[in-house]
């Protein structure tokens, strides 16, 4: 497949200019699994610059997940991290240059998102919080204008200054902290329920996802309610468990040792058995090797406990949910605690 036929735009001209600027000689390419099939397009472009290229076969979940170890072992001077950034950008970490490049999905999402807006306006929601995932940021400004012209008062915010309008799968508290009081509902352009679910759980406001891949509009509330019911059930199960493993991920943007140690100590202080365990990638096959653990606190990506609970036979908790175990009660449970990546110890005696 040539780059013109590829449904994604990797901004290759800018990538090439950045790689030339830093005189990259050996590059490890990181792509999300769904985009690895387009690797030959990137490889050809890089080889034209006489760069030696490697593809990382590991998962690439986000900018929190840089394959620094693989780059060092293969003696790469540069990682080309594709698909989680809204522009071509350069960073340096541990002597390795990180070039982040977008993977913009070419299909225009504006007609679909405008239909989503109509659904929200029919519910009386005119003040809209608008976000897109990194793959659709190329349309963000145009989309914002189109929705304003269609009668919405559009607001947005940003986690990082260089990514206005981009939503990621975590840090929802930060995303909505100054925004939520200004909006009636949220509209998210992105694939699947992943990002909209986080907004719904955090704000309890209507969320519609405009999914350009399936060309579908998804109202998050119903599916999210099912997920939250199951979550509550697992949390209830966890209260009765005695033996906990506190799971640390070594991924560079997920590693929080001090928090894991604090959670272990708090659990032990409540008479639980709690051990620290560590891995790069957390998966059911790894956790099944330690049957002495009856429940897990995941000090890593907060989506693991939410989106992948069904793959695990035992409760997976996020740090924000630990307070219920410490209290021994689900009283005053609020769903947004399920996505809080830190300890919140309100009302824990
Ligand atoms: S921690 Fe999880 S949700 Fe957050 S950016 Fe990384 S992969 Fe995405």
Features:
single chain, 349 residues, Rossmann fold, 3 domains, five-stranded mixed β-sheet, 16 strands, 32% helix, binds iron/sulfur cluster
Describe the fold and architecture.
The chain is of the alpha/beta class and 349 residues long. The chain folds into three domains: 8-105, Diphthamide synthesis DPH1/DPH2 domain 1 (Rossmann fold), CATH 3.40.50; 114-223, Diphthamide synthesis DPH1/DPH2 domain 2 (Rossmann fold, 3-Layer(aba) Sandwich), CATH 3.40.50; 240-339, Diphthamide synthesis DPH1/DPH2 domain 3 (Rossmann fold, 3-Layer(aba) Sandwich), CATH 3.40.50.11860. Helices cover 32% and strands 21% of the residues. It has twelve helices and 16 strands. It has helices at residues 12-21, 39-47, 68-73, 110-122, 140-149, 172-176, 194-203, 220-239, 257-269, 284-287, 303-307, 322-327, and strands at residues 8-9, 26-30, 52-55, 78-82, 89-93, 96-101, 104-105, 127-132, 153-155, 185-189, 207-211, 216-219, 243-249, 273-279, 295-299, 316-317. The strands form four sheets. Strands 3-2-4-6-5 form a five-stranded mixed sheet. α4 (110-122) packs across α5. The longest helix is centred in the middle third of the chain and has 20 residues, at 220-239. The protein is globular, with a radius of gyration of 21 Å. The model has no long low-confidence stretch (mean pLDDT 93). Iron/sulfur cluster binds at residues 61-62, 64, 168-170, 253-254, 301, 303. Iron/sulfur cluster is lined by residues 61-62, 64, 168-170, 253-254, 301, 303.
């Amino acid at each position: 497949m040539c780059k013109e036929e590829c449904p994604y735009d990797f901004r290759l001209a800018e990538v090439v200019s950045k790689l030339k600027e830093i005189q990259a000689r050996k590059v490890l390419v990181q792509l999300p699994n769904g985009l690895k099939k387009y690797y030959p397009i990137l490889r050809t472009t890089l080889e034209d610059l006489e760069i030696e290229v490697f593809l990382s076969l590991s998962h690439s979940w986000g900018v929190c997940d840089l394959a620094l170890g693989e780059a060092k072992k293969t003696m790469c001077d540069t990682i080309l991290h594709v698909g989680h950034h809204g522009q071509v950008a350069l960073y340096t970490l541990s002597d390795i240059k990180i070039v982040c490049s977008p993977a913009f999905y070419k299909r225009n999402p504006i007609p679909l998102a405008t239909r989503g807006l109509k659904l929200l306006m029919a519910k009386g929601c005119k003040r809209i919080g608008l976000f897109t995932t990194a793959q659709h940021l190329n349309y963000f400004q145009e989309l914002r204008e189109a929705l304003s012209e269609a009668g919405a008062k559009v607001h947005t915010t940003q986690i990082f200054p260089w990514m206005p309008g981009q939503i990621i799968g975590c840090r929802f508290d930060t995303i909505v902290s100054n925004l939520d009081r200004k909006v009636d509902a949220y509209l998210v352009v992105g694939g699947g329920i992943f990002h909209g679910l986080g907004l719904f759980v955090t704000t309890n406001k209507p969320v519609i996802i405009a999914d350009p891949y399936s060309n579908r509009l998804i109202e998050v509330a119903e599916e999210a309610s099912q997920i939250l019911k199951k979550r509550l059930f697992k949390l209830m199960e966890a209260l009765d468990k005695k033996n906990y493993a506190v799971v640390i991920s070594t991924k560079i943007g997920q590693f929080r040792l001090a928090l894991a140690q604090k959670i272990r100590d708090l659990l032990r202080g409540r008479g639980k058995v709690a051990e620290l365990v560590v891995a790069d990638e957390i998966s059911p096959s790894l956790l099944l090797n330690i049957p002495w653990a009856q429940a897990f606190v995941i000090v890593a990506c907060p989506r693991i406990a939410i989106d992948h609970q069904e793959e695990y036979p035992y409760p997976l908790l996020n740090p924000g949910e630990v307070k219920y175990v410490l209290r021994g009660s689900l009283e005053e449970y609020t769903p947004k605690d399920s996505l809080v990546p830190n300890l919140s110890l309100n009302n824990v005696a």
